[in-house]
Amino acid sequence: MEIRSVNELGDLSGVRVLVRTALNVPMEQGAVSDTFRLDRALKTIEFLTARGARVILASHRSETTGSLKPVFDYLKKKIALVYVDDIAGVKAHAAALALKDGQSLMLENLRWDKGEKANDEHFVRELTSMADMYVDDDFTTAHRPHASIIGVPKFLPSYAGFQFLAELEGLTPALTPQSPSLAILGGKKLETKVPLLQTLLKKYDHVFVGGALANDFFLAKGYEIGKSLASGTDVASRLLNDSKILLPTEVSVATVDGRDDVQADNVGEGETISDIAPRSIAALKPYIDKARMILWNGPMGNFENGFREGTDILASFIAKAQGTKIVGGGDTLASIQDLGLEKDFTFVSTAGGAMLDFLANGTLPGIEALESSKATRS
Ligand code: 3PG
C-alpha cells in the first residue's frame, strides 16, 4: 500500500498535527553538539506551520532520562515554538489546546514514559487524543516498534514527512544494486550485523568487511589479532569461504607514537588493530572505480579514538567514483562532512540502526505502520 506524503496536504488551519520527528542528537555539556538532524527536521515542520497547522513535536533521546530541552533551545531560534515538560499528560494536553495556527509545541522525551517502548495502548490513546493527524518524519527510529511509531498511525490519519520520504527514496536503490556492485561494511559488533551481511552477500557482487568486523574474519582465518576488538560470534568462520567477501590485506596497529602498518596476518600478540592501512584501500580502489552501486556503512577504524585515516581515505576515493554512492552511519557521516564531501555522494543517510535494518529486511515497522494506516481525515 502507498504511503501518503505531507505534500498532499492543503490548508491545515486549526488542525493539530502530531509530528514524530528525529530530535535524538548528540549533546555536550547540556547543549546540542551536532545540529545536522535538527536542520533537516525543519522542512516538514515549516511546511505544516506555513499551512496553518498547530504542530506537536514528539521525539525521544536514547538516554531515557535525558531532556529534550536543549533541542528546544536550538529550535526555538528557528521556529515559533513552545515547550512543555510533559509528554501526554494534563500539562501537555493544555499546551496543545493553547496552540495557535502556525505555532509548534515540543513535548518531552517520549521514553520518559514506559508506554512508549512497550507500545502501550493507553499511552497511544493519550498521544492521539492531543491531535487530529499524524506525520512520521523520523526514519531514524522507524526500526523501533514503539507507541509513537506503530501505535499512533492506527488511530490517526497518517502521512510521511519529507525527511522520512527522503531516507526511503534515498536508500531504496541500494536494495536492488546494479552490477558490478560493492557493499562496504565497517564499525563493530558483527553479531548485530549478521542479517545485513547475509542480505548483502545475496545481492551484491562484493562485500568489503572492514573496521572491527574484519577482526572476526582474521580470527576465523587463524590470524593473531592481539588485543583487538572481536565479537566472538562464529559467523565469520561460516562466511569465510564466500568468494564475495573482501578483507583488508594490511592493517594499522596502534603504537606509542601513532600507528604502524603491518600485513593482516602479522599482528603481534600485544598489539591492537586500530584502522585499516592505506594499502588495503588502494587494493579496494579498482572495485570502487568500476562499481555501478557502492553502499557504505561504518568506519574502517577506531574512529571515536581518533583512528580515522582509513575512513577518510575511503571517503575520498568513493567520492570520486562514478557509480551511485549511498552511505550512512554516524562516524561515516562525520568523516564525509568534515572532508566537505557530502555533495559528492548520491545519498547520505542520517539513520543508523534503521538504515541497517532497512537494508537487511527491505522494510521497517514504521514503514509498515504508515502503509497500513487506515484512518482517514474527516
Ligand atoms: C537513532 O538515533 O539512531 C534513532 O533515533 C534510534 O535511537 P535508539 O537507538 O535510541 O532507539
Percent of residues in helical segments? 25-40%
- The CATH homologous superfamily of the largest domain is termed Phosphoglycerate kinase, N-terminal domain
Question: Could you give a short account of the major beta sheet?
Answer: 6 strands, parallel
Strand order of the largest sheet: 5-6-4-1-7-8
Count of individual beta strands: 17
CATH T-level fold name of the largest domain: Rossmann fold
- Discrete helix count: 15
Distance between the termini: 21 Å
What is the overall pLDDT average?
96
Task: Based on Cα principal axes, name the global outline.
Answer: elongated
Unreliable stretches? none
Radius of gyration from the alpha-carbon trace, in angstroms: 22 Å
Describe this protein's structure.
The protein has 378 residues and is of the alpha/beta class. The chain folds into two domains: 6-163 and 363-376, Phosphoglycerate kinase, N-terminal domain (Rossmann fold), CATH 3.40.50; 176-345, 3-Layer(aba) Sandwich (Rossmann fold), CATH 3.40.50. It is built from 15 helices and 17 strands. Helix 3 (90-98) links the parallel strand 5 (81-83) and strand 6. The longest helix has 15 residues, at 36-50. It is elongated, with a radius of gyration of 22 Å. The protein starts with 15 loop residues before the first strand and ends in a 6-residue tail after the last helix. The mean pLDDT is 96. The structure holds 3-phosphoglyceric acid. Residues 22, 24, 62, 140-141, 144, 352-353 line the site of 3-phosphoglyceric acid.
